[in-house]
Amino acid sequence: MKKTLLFLLLFTFTLSATAQSYMGYFHDNYAGVQSVLFNPASIADSRFKTDINLFSISGAVQNDLYGVKLTDVYKDGYDFDAQSKMYAKNSNNALLNFDIMGPSFMFNIAPKHTIAVFTRARSVSSLRNINGGLIDQIKDGLDEASDFNFNAGNANGASNTWAEVGISYAAVLYQKDQHFLKGGLTAKYLQGGVNGYIHGNNVQLKYNENRINPERGTLESTGQITIGTSQDFEANEDYKFDSGSRGVGFDLGFVYEWRPEYEKYDITKATRADNNFRDLNKYKIRFGLSLTDIGSINYRNARQDTYNVNGTITQEMINDADDFYKFLDQNYQKTTTTSGTKTNLPTALHADVDWNIHNKFYLNLNGDINMISANKINGYGVADRITLTPRYERRWFSFYVPMTYMQYSGMQVGSGLRVGAFFVGSGSVLSNFVSKESKGADFHLGMKIPVYEKKFKDRDEDGVIDKEDACKKVAGPAENNGCPWPDSDGDGVFDKDDACQAIAGPKENKGCPWKDSDGDTLLDNVDACPAIAGPVENKGCPWPDTDGDGVLDKDDACPNVAGSVENKGCPDLDADKDGVLDKDDDCPLVFGPKDNRGCPKVTKETLAQLKVEAKSIFFTSGKASLNDARKGETSGRLDAIKEILKNYPNAKFAINGHTDNVGNAKANQKLSEARAKVIMDLLIEKGVNPANLTSQGFGASKPIKSNKTASGRAENRRTEIVYLGNVL
Length: 728
Hints:
- This protein is mainly β.
- It is built from eleven helices and 28 strands.
- The chain has two domains: 5-136 and 155-452, Porin; 604-726, CATH 3.30.1330.60.
- Helix content is 13%, strand content 35%.
- The strands form three sheets. It has a 23-stranded antiparallel beta sheet that branches. Strands 27-26-28 form a three-stranded mixed beta sheet. A two-stranded antiparallel ribbon has the order 2-3.
- α8 runs antiparallel to α9 (631-645).
């Protein structure tokens, strides 16, 4: 066996890869049957009548050991060892996925129920917990290596190829106002193909170089290595298909949509042309959660060999081995079982949030979480990842740019396109185009026959869709195949319902004109007195005058009591019995003489009382605010003034403010004005008619005592209420 034997032992699965397929595409609302692979609930209430997949394929590879410039890999003379970059660590990983979807379809079996049937061939492999430093040390063979001592640990690799036939059922579970929930379940029949795995258990490798005779170099090892295959390839290298190697699997998913504009899509208000709004995406935000690939495949004829690799071998023994199995068989103790094995599916949890930013623009955030232990024997799964994808989508076109952080391979940016029946894309094409150290690559493409839900055409908007409308450009009833009924007299009553087809008339009279029996210009159908002429305003009836005072009831404020025209048909009144009729009385509720238009006159006694009350209103010194200590007394004075003034509803009074001559004259003037206004505002608050009051300040210009003495100045600081005459 050649020098690369041990390198192959550790690197058998390095070109394996992840189970993430159709990256960036499957969250498109027009992904159709492909979307059921990631969330079976997605097909319910879809935009399709049916979607038929003819052929589609997806593949991906990820690793965290080697970084390469993919655009150079296929060039002549490319040296992988020299031009790639290694990122060796104690636990390197690699994953591979290859997914072919054969003839598949989905269709609606009822408005809220959808099924899908799909066929699929898959190959998923993984390599985990590989010591990258060891690979770097021996990639040129042990005879080229120098001394090393590595803990290979629990290296774990698995690969499985199988076929699936699945049936999915999805339904709308809950719908109320803006809330919309749907769920889905997939059941899969699994036919096993080829399965293989290798698992290390606490493997330790130590190499001692012999510089004089390289073939005498020694490799010391400890631990266990388990190798399993779906059939005994050591005994028979030819692959034999085993129909009994089969299993079952399940996918489960839910989708919630928030539809804030749900009233726009009220089916009870939909016209035939709206087709129940089935062609529209109605959500603003969509949340999806699914668990896929729950299940396993049982390989009946599987073989498992467990090698105890405790011991020491020489480089010569490695070089002399013919093949990998013989090398292990010749040098290590082996335990073999042929009782069959069961391998899991790559179970994963998926979540996504899809935001309809505006019209046809969307932003999607989705991620996968691997549910399979990295140390499970014959276990393989997906890589954890999170992807942010802006996209533009229409019925026949979508463009998307997935930006992914992928476990092991890091950040990737790709692009994809869906045009009509074709789609193609990659989650890493853009980053791989510019990166010199790509750690992963993927692609997807396919061809399908989509049959979309659509809004029916109804050009004349008469409720009869064009394909059933005999008059597509002219509105007409469904009873007449979408064509208008004839109307010979143009009165809006179709001839079929018109009793007077040659003469225009209202619909209420079966297309015949109304008569005017009393000749008052009001037609009988709206004339309350069709036999007696009357004004239009009284529905064709004459106006009554119940009290016979010459004022018609419609204008009579007292229709049952005779009165004068001037008083709107009511008798003239004198409510206060002062001999002045209310219509001439400025104070109809207060007794007063005729020469004062029925209002009482302001007497000298009243003015004297007002003077006394006003004099007893006290302010804070130098301010226009009432003295806090005497507010109660002041309020009582104001109440007394109010009671006096309300007896003279047509009298006008002035509130005058005065100060002494102490201080600045301008300041005194402003202070007197402010104090007078304060009194006026307080009286208005208490109910005095503001039209009867004015306020004015005179400062120190009108003293009533000498300002040379304190008592004189106190007298000069005052407010007065002055009678000005009657309100005009």
